[in-house]
C-alpha cells in the first residue's frame, strides 16, 4: 500500500529536480540581479533598487508595446495560415497525413538563424519576390519590404507556424467524425457545422497554438535584427544588447521580468475570456 | 622570396574557400564569413551560458602588483592563443615559422567571435584569478579593452622584450589614444571604418559623411549599430575628433543621427552583415570596414568603392593582450614580437588583407610579388601592396581618428545615448 502512494512522487521527482535546477534557481538569481546596482567593473551590489524597473519601463515602453503588437500580429497570421493547413491535413489528406506533417516540420531541420537570413534573399529589393513583381509592374519600383515591420512580422509567423499547426491538427485529428455527421443530420450546412461544431471543438488546440506562438514571437530578437530596419527594434533585442554589449545585467533582468509579467497577465486574461474550463477540457 | 612552408599554398584559393561563399552560379552568395562578419548568435549563446554561471563579481585587481611581474617569469615552450576566426591562414604558416625559430608550440584557438561575449566569458574567471585557458588574446580597442585595463586583468608589457616592435611598428601604432605607450598591448592588425558605395547604383562620387544624410538615397543608406562606430560618424560630421569628445558633443552627434534616421534615409543599422545588401543593391552606400570591401572586390569582382570621407574616418585596431593569469607570458610576449618581423607581418597580411601595423610589409610584399613565378599570386600580392586600404598613405593616416577611450561609467552613458538611435 505504502509503495503505491509514493510511486507517483518518485516518478515525478526528476521533473521537479530539473525544474528546480534549471528554472527556479536561475529565475531567483535573475530576480535578485534585477534589484542590484553597479557595473561590471565595481561589481553589482544588492540594494533592492526598484528604480531599475522604473527605468526599464520608462525607457523601453515603446519597444515592449511593439513586441506585444508584433507578437499578436504574427500569432493572428499563424492562425489565418495555420488553421486551414491543420484542417486540411486532418480531414482531407487521407493516407498522406504524416507526409504533410513532416513537410511542415521540415524547415526545423535548418537552423533558425539561417532560415531567417535566407528571407533576406527572398525579400531583397531586387530579389526573388519583389524583383519579379517589379518587373511585371505589379508593385512600385521603389517598394522596399526588407527592413520593415511587415518583414519582421512575416518572418516571425513563418518561423513559428508549425507551433500553431500541430496543436490544432492534434485536436481536429482526434475529433469524432460523428459529431459533424450529427450536425448535418440536424440540418446544419457546412458553414454552420464548422462554426458550431468543429471550431468550438478545436479551440483548445488554437489556445495551445497561441501560447506556443505568442510567447516566443513577442520575446524573439532574431527576426527583428535580421529583417528589421529603423523603428522595428523588439524588446528581445534590447535585452540582448543590455546583457551582452552593455553588461548592464540589472536593467536586462528587470526588462525580462516586466516582459514576463505582461505575457503572463495577457495569457491569463485570454484564458479567462475564452473560459478556462472549456479551453483546458480534455477531449477523448 | 618564398618560404618553403608556404610554397604549396595558394592564398587566393584559400581565401576563396574560407571567405565569401557562393552557393552556385546564378544563386545569391551567402554572406561570407570574415573576421568582422561572423554571426553574433553563437557568441550570444555562449555568453548567456557564461553569464548564468558567473554570478556578478567584479573585483578590481591592483595594477601595482605588476611592478616586478616579469622578474620571475620563464619560458615554458608552449602557449595558448585566442584569436578571431579567419585571422590566420588555415595552415597556420606563421605559427609554424614561430616554432621553427623559437621551438615554442602554439595552441591556436579561434575562440573570439565577438568582443562583448568573449569578455563575458573570461571576466568571471579573471575575477577569481583563475586560468582563462589562454595566454594571449586578440581584442579590438573598445569598451571591453578599457574594462580589462581598468580592472587590472592584463599584464603590463616589458618593452625590453619587444625589439622588433620598437624597430618596425608604424608611428600611428605606437601612439594610440586607447593605450598610450603600448603599456598593455601591441596591435595585431587594423582597419578603417569609412564609407563604401556600390558604383552600379550611385552615379556620383561619394566624398563625405554628409552624403550619408542625403535624402536622394532614401532607404538605401546603411549605418553601423555599434555605439562607438555610429557615434564616430556623427561626431566627425560635426567636426569633432572622437578621441577628444565630451558629453555635449555626444548629444549633438546623437541629434544629427536622429535627424538622419527620421528623414528615412537609413535603411537599417548593421552589425557586420552589410556587404551582401551593398552588393545586391539593397544598400547603395554604407558605413563599412576597409578589409571587407577589399576582399569582396578581390573575390567577387564587385564594383564597390571605399572612401575615407573628407570629414575623416576612424582607425580601429585589434590588439594582442596577455591576461594576468597567463601561464606562459614569456612565450606570449615572444610571439608578439615575432609577429613584428616584417616577413612574418607580410605573410599574415597576404591572408587577412587588413592593415598590418608594420609599414615595411608593403616593401616586402612588393618584393615577393616580383619574385613570385605563379602569375595569379604575384598579381594578388601586387594588388595588396598597392592598395591604400591595406597600406594607407601618410595623407590617409592624417584623416584617420582614434576612438574615444572611456571609463566604465562614461561608457554606459555613451552607449545609452547612441543606442537610443540604433535601437529605436
SSE arrangement:
The complex is a heterodimer of chains A (284) and B (424).
Chain A: H1 2-33, E1 36-39, E2 43-46, H2 51-92, H3 97-105, H4 112-123, H5 128-135, H6 149-174, H7 177-185, H8 190-219, H9 222-227, H10 235-245, H11 249-274, H12 276-280
Antiparallel strand pairs in A: 1-2
Helix pairs in contact in A: 2-6, 2-8, 2-11, 6-8, 7-8, 8-11, 10-11
Chain B: H1 11-18, H2 40-54, E1 78-82, H3 93-102, E2 105-109, H4 115-128, E3 136-140, H5 143-151, H6 163-168, H7 171-174, E4 185-198, E5 221-224, H8 227-237, H9 247-262, E6 266-270, H10 275-280, E7 285-289, H11 290-300, E8 304-307, E9 313-321, H12 329-338, H13 342-352, H14 361-371, H15 375-386, H16 394-398, E10 400-401, H17 408-422
Parallel strand pairs in B: 1-2, 1-3, 5-6, 5-7, 9-10
Antiparallel strand pairs in B: 3-9, 4-7, 4-8, 4-9
Helix pairs in contact in B: 2-4, 8-9, 8-17, 9-17, 13-14, 14-15
What features would you describe in this structure?
The complex is a heterodimer of chains A (284) and B (424). With 284 residues, chain A is mainly alpha-helical. Chain A has one domain: Orthogonal Bundle (MetI-like fold). Helices cover 76% and strands 3% of the residues of chain A. Chain A has twelve helices and two strands; from the N terminus they run H-E-E-H-H-H-H-H-H-H-H-H-H-H. Chain A has a two-stranded antiparallel ribbon. In chain A, helix 7 crosses helix 8 and helix 8 packs antiparallel against helix 11. By secondary structure, chain B is of the alpha/beta class. Chain B folds into two domains: 243 residues, 3-Layer(aba) Sandwich (D-Maltodextrin-Binding Protein, domain 2); 142 residues, D-Maltodextrin-Binding Protein, domain 2. In chain B, strands 1, 2, 3, 4, 5, 6, 7, 8, 9 and 10 form a ten-stranded mixed sheet that branches. Chains A and B meet through helix 1, strand 1, helix 4 and helix 10 of A and helix 2, helix 4, helix 5, strand 6 and helix 10 of B.
Amino acid at each position: 500500500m505504502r509503495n503505491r502512494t509514493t510511486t507517483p512522487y518518485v516518478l515525478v521527482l526528476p521533473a521537479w529536480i530539473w525544474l528546480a535546477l534549471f528554472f527556479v534557481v536561475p529565475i531567483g538569481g535573475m530576480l535578485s540581479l534585477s534589484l542590484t546596482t553597479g557595473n561590471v567593473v565595481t561589481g553589482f551590489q544588492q540594494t533592492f533598487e526598484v528604480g531599475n524597473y522604473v527605468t526599464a519601463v520608462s525607457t523601453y515602453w515603446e519597444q515592449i508595446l511593439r513586441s506585444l503588437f508584433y507578437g499578436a500580429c504574427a500569432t493572428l497570421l499563424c492562425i489565418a495560415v495555420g488553421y486551414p493547413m491543420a484542417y486540411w491535413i486532418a480531414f482531407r489528406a487521407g493516407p498522406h497525413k504524416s507526409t504533410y506533417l513532416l513537410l511542415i516540420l521540415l524547415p526545423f531541420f535548418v537552423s533558425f538563424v539561417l532560415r531567417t537570413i535566407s528571407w533576406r534573399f527572398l525579400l531583397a529589393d531586387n530579389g526573388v519576390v519583389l524583383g519579379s513583381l517589379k518587373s511585371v509592374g505589379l508593385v512600385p519600383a521603389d517598394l522596399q519590404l526588407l527592413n520593415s515591420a511587415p518583414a519582421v512580422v512575416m518572418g516571425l509567423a513563418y518561423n513559428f507556424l508549425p507551433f500553431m499547426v500541430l496543436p490544432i491538427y492534434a485536436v481536429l485529428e482526434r475529433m469524432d467524425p460523428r459529431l459533424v455527421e450529427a450536425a448535418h443530420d440536424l440540418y446544419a450546412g457546412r458553414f454552420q457545422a464548422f462554426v458550431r461544431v468543429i471550431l468550438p471543438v478545436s479551440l483548445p488546440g488554437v489556445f495551445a497554438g497561441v501560447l506556443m506562438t505568442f510567447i516566443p514571437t513577442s520575446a524573439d530578437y532574431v527576426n527583428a535584427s535580421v529583417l528589421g530596419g529603423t523603428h522595428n527594434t523588439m524588446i528581445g533585442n534590447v535585452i540582448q544588447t543590455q546583457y551582452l554589449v552593455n553588461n548592464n545585467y540589472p536593467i536586462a533582468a528587470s526588462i525580462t521580468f516586466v516582459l514576463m509579467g505582461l505575457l503572463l497577465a495577457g495569457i491569463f486574461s485570454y484564458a479567462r475570456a475564452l473560459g478556462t474550463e472549456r479551453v483546458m477540457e480534455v477531449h477523448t | 622570396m618564398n618560404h618553403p612552408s608556404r610554397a604549396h599554398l595558394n592564398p587566393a584559393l584559400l581565401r576563396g574557400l574560407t571567405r565569401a561563399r557562393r552557393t552556385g552560379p546564378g544563386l545569391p552568395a551567402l554572406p561570407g564569413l570574415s573576421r568582422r562578419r561572423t554571426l553574433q548568435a553563437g557568441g550570444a549563446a555562449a555568453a548567456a551560458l557564461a553569464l548564468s554561471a558567473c554570478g556578478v563579481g567584479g573585483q578590481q585587481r591592483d595594477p601595482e602588483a605588476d611592478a616586478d611581474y616579469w622578474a620571475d617569469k620563464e619560458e615554458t615552450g608552449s602557449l595558448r592563443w585566442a584569436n578571431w576566426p579567419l585571422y590566420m591562414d588555415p595552415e597556420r604558416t606563421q605559427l609554424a615559422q614561430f616554432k621553427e625559430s623559437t621551438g615554442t608550440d602554439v595552441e591556436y584557438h579561434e575562440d573570439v567571435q565577438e568582443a562583448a561575449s568573449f569578455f563575458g566569458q573570461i571576466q568571471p574567471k579573471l575575477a577569481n584569478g583563475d586560468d582563462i585557458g589562454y595566454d594571449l588574446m586578440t581584442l579590438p580597442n573598445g569598451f571591453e579593452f578599457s574594462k580589462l585595463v581598468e580592472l587590472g586583468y592584463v599584464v603590463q608589457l616589458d618593452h625590453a622584450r619587444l625589439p622588433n616592435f620598437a624597430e618596425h611598428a608604424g608611428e600611428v601604432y605606437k601612439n594610440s589614444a586607447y593605450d598610450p605607450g603600448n603599456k598593455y598591448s601591441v596591435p595585431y592588425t587594423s582597419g578603417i571604418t569609412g564609407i563604401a558605395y556600390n558604383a552600379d547604383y550611385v552615379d556620383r562620387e561619394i566624398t563625405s559623411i554628409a552624403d550619408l544624410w542625403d535624402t536622394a538615397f532614401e532607404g538605401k543608406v546603411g549605418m553601423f549599430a555599434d555605439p562607438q562606430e555610429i557615434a564616430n560618424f556623427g561626431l566627425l560630421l560635426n567636426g569633432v575628433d572622437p578621441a577628444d569628445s565630451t558629453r555635449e558633443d555626444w548629444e549633438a552627434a546623437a541629434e544629427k543621427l536622429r535627424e538622419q534616421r527620421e528623414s528615412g534615409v537609413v535603411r537599417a543599422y548593421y552589425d557586420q552583415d552589410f556587404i551582401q545588401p551593398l552588393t545586391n543593391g539593397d544598400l547603395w552606400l554604407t558605413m563599412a570596414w576597409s578589409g571587407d570591401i577589399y576582399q569582396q572586390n578581390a573575390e567577387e569582382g564587385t564594383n564597390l568603392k571605399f572612401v575615407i570621407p573628407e570629414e575623416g574616418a576612424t582607425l580601429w585596431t585589434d590588439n594582442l593582450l596577455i591576461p594576468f593569469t597567463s601561464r606562459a607570458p614569456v612565450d606570449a610576449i615572444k610571439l608578439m614580437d615575432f609577429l613584428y618581423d616584417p616577413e612574418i607581418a607580410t605573410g599574415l597580411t597576404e591572408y587577412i588583407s587588413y592593415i598590418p601595423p608594420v609599414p615595411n610589409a608593403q616593401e616586402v610584399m612588393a618584393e615577393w610579388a616580383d619574385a613570385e613565378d605563379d602569375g595569379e599570386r604575384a598579381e594578388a600580392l601586387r594588388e595588396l601592396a598597392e592598395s591604400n586600404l591595406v597600406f594607407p598613405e601618410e595623407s590617409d593616416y592624417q584623416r584617420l581618428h582614434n576612438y574615444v577611450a572611456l571609463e566604465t561609467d562614461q561608457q554606459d552613458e555613451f552607449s545609452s545615448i547612441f543606442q537610443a538611435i540604433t535601437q529605436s
